[in-house]
Amino acid sequence: MDAADVPPLPRVPARAPRRTTLAAVGTRSLRVAAWRERDDIALVATRSGGRAPDPAEILRLVAAAHDAGVTRLVTGALTPGEQAPFAAAGFTVHDRLHLLSHDLRDLAPTPEVAFRIRRAGRADHAAALAVDARAFEPFWRLDRVGLRDALGATASARFRVLGSDPIVGYAVIGRSGDRGYLQRLAVDPGHRRQGLGAALVLDGLRWLRRRWATSVVVNTQVGNDAALSLYRRLGFVLEPGGLCVLTRTTDP
Predict the structure, then answer these.
(1) Residue 208 CA from chain centroid, whole number
(2) With contact defined as beta carbons under 8 Å apart, do 117 and 124 qualify?
């Protein structure tokens, strides 16, 4: 995921404090979590390996979220097929994303850059998130929970930063089986057009290939032409259909 201008989620009136925990709002096929540590917005996502939800189940979740004090729900990035039951339950498109893939066969040469790519330690998390805040619009910024989730989303993950004082960029790339996932890429706006993004991506792609991955995917917002151009230069190809992030209020 890369930075781009994204319309902010509309504000809605504050609600009473939660009477139910978000964990209790989930269903057999859907889970709910706080969105960027906000009390009024929650993320809804399908459970790994679970069945696809139907509109009735989604509407029950919307009602439960309303009772828990949540005023708005946001989905993760969904394929066209995954969007259908949410659309039937009143969700609308908040943002559209390109989905790209790479077969890891032919990798471009890594550009020489002025900063060393190194393994990120726990002490680097705050600095990486500071870069993230400068690189992304508010809707897409990661917080500490989001970074933790990105690092734990796959069976194995590689977290690399550029520089030390200051850190000027970072990437999180994960692997599950033979599939890789470029989870996050951020470069400080003051250090763009120096090959740093390409160096971070290629470092991750070579790591995936050493671990017998056969493909990797990434998504980026429609309209983020700089990110799209970077990925295509590095050999990624657009997948048909793309992805969408959907949203709706919890009002009945």
Answers:
(1) 19
(2) no
Phi, psi of 157 (to 5 degrees): -145, 150
Q: What is the DSSP string of 29-66?
A: SEEEEEETTEEEEEEEEEPTTPPPP-HHHHHHHHHHHH
Tokens representing residue 246 in the block = 């959907």
- Distance in angstroms between the alpha carbons of the first and the last residue of the chain: 32
pLDDT at residue 7, rounded to an integer: 46
Output the six-digit token pair for 208. Answer: 């995936």
Mean pLDDT by 10 residues, the chain (252 residues): 47 44 71 83 82 92 93 94 96 97 97 96 97 93 90 95 95 97 97 96 98 97 95 97 96 90
Task: Write the DSSP string, 67-133.
Answer: HTT--EEEE--B-HHHHHHHHHTT-EEEEEEEEEEE-SSS-PPPPP-SS-EEEPPGGGHHHHHHHHH
Name the nearest CA neighbour of 20 among 183, 250, 235, 252: 250
The C-alpha atoms of residue 13 and residue 181 are separated, in whole angstroms, by 37
169 membership: H or E segment, kind and range:
strand 167-176
Q: Which pLDDT score, from 0 to 100, does residue 29 have?
A: 80
Tokens of residue 150, six digits: 């990105």
Sign of CA dihedral 228, 78, 218, 195: positive
- CATH fold, domain 104-213, is Aminopeptidase (3.40.630)
Q: Please, where in the chain does CATH 3.40.630.30 lie?
A: 22-96+242-249, 104-213
Check: CB of residue 214 under 8 Å from CB of residue 103. Answer: yes
Q: Between helices 196-210 and 225-233, what is the axis angle to 10°?
A: 50
- 22-96+242-249, which class in CATH? alpha beta
